[in-house]
Design a protein that fits this description.
It is a single chain. By secondary structure, the chain is α+β, with helices and mostly antiparallel strands. The chain has one domain.
Amino acid sequence: MQQYCAFRIDSLGKVIGTTKLSCADDTEAKRRTEALRDGDEIQLWQCDRLVAVFKTRASH
């Protein structure tokens, strides 16, 4: 399993929460991060590698 961290970002660009994830690969990590969304932006990282950014729902 690989380790990932999802950072919840507020409208001012500040980190307001983190969730650590153990996943088989990037695809699983993205799927699990998508399920965490509740309106805030979420950045998914693996160590110092940015895997994905999930923008706020209002941005879509």
